[in-house]
# Entry
Amino acid sequence: MSPRTDITMITEPFMIRAFLAALLLAPLCALLGVFVTARRMAFFSDTVSHAALAGVALGFLFGLADPTVPLIGVSLLVAAAMYWLRENTELFTDTIMALLLAGCVAVGIIILSLLKSRPADIQAYLFGDILAIGWVDVGLAAGLFIIIGPLVFARLNELSLITVQEEIAHVCGVPVRRLNYIFVIVLTLTVAITIRLLGIILVTSLLVIPPAAARSFSRNLRQQILLSLGLGLVGGVGGIVFSYQLDVPCGPAIVVSCIGLFLVSLFLGRVRQRRAFAPPDPLGRNL
# Structure
């Protein structure tokens, strides 16, 4: 299959929607991903995204052309169930997540198997698809970006303190419990909306890879946030261009683009470390 290099791709309606979704969701996921990776919540976002399969299946079962509402509803329900089980049982957090992930995926597969005809766009929810992104998705992404972005930056000091040392945050009077619940809700909504761009299977990558790449160059949390925002934006937009030109699924293309940025950052980070720890030249020459 020959690459598509037509410059008119930026004028096609579905590409405009895809670019807008990437410009809004990729930096937002990267921003939240800094706290997700620092708090070791990657498995949480993975559980929520996979649980969304049950929501998608319920939407198709009820005959909905767009299962976004049940998708978001099931994702929020699973997130609430995780926190309730963690606070009211003696089960470890990773055990709770594994149970909910497996259960929701199983329910989703059973519902899909009971449908008389399998929906043609189920693959778009699994792997992401440029054509699946509608103006409703762009509007939801814009709403999340406008609300969540300023909210995170307004509470950046409190979130940073909770991330680094939750006990000290309690002592300092930070409403830790409330902020944790707000963060979980925000993260769940972002994951649910981003599924249309990346797919259920790959959505966690946009939360994890840009912050991981930014960590190689960051000396503090604020630097990591700024670098992660830039890398997420480049990876999201670059992946969409890659997807269009090679006519491949959108989600995997974005992930490959982000992985490429991670490898480059890893190499450059190693080079910088070697230069920083290199012994001084006794003759004063640059090594």
Remarks:
- The mean pLDDT is 83.
- The two ends are 47 Å apart (CA to CA).
